[in-house]
Amino acid sequence: MSEMTLRRAQVSDHGTIVECVREWWGDSRTPDQARELSMLLPRLFLQFFAGTSLVLEDGDGVKAFLVGFHAADNDHEAYIHFVGVAPELRGQGVGRRLYTAFFERAAEAGRREVHAITSPLNTGSVAFHRAMGFMLEEGDREVNGLPVHGDYDGPGQHRVCFRRQIAVHPRSD
């Protein structure tokens, strides 16, 4: 495996990232489900949040990405919206590398707290977020033993909500 480079995302990455989602999740979803999942990443995320989003690539192309942003309504929160890692690289610390880089950049920007959500059925994501130091937020119901926010993303779309404190490291520039 060649060396991977972490860089800031660009608007021009949008098509590639959408294709990655469709391909990387194609093994666990139907083509229609994978396409629907890719719709969670409209171009606007990279138009307006490329500076807080990350791409990990090697000579063969994109191997992982993280789309995240800093809250517009306050100066202390950040949010990780969507993360993808090529199936052959899962379990090798690639997701941790992306999250750690996001935390560092958010802390440099004065952010003190990072949020994320996932489906209560996505046990791998729940375990990953817990391993990354995220705390489960209290919900209004329980699914599979997890506190969830009912109908968070619409009727029947319950979500596990996470929060993680990070230490602020103001930029020295």
Explain what the structure shows.
This protein is an alpha+beta fold and 173 residues long. Helix content is 28%, strand content 28%. It has helices spanning 14-24, 31-38, 44-49, 94-108, 123-131; strands at 5-8, 54-58, 61-70, 77-85, 113-118, 135-136, 141-143, 146-148, 160-165. The strands form 2 sheets. Strands 1-2-3-4-5-9-6 form a 7-stranded mixed beta sheet, sandwiched between helices. A two-stranded antiparallel ribbon has the order 7-8. A hairpin with a 2-residue loop joins strand 7 and strand 8 (146-148). Helix 1 runs antiparallel to helix 2. The model has no long low-confidence stretch (mean pLDDT 93). It holds the Pfam family Acetyltransf_1. This is GNAT family N-acetyltransferase.
Outline of this structure?
It contains 5 helices and 9 strands, in the order E-H-H-H-E-E-E-H-E-H-E-E-E-E. By secondary structure, the chain is α+β, with helices and mostly antiparallel strands. Strands 1-2-3-4-5-9-6 form a 7-stranded mixed beta sheet, with helices on both faces.
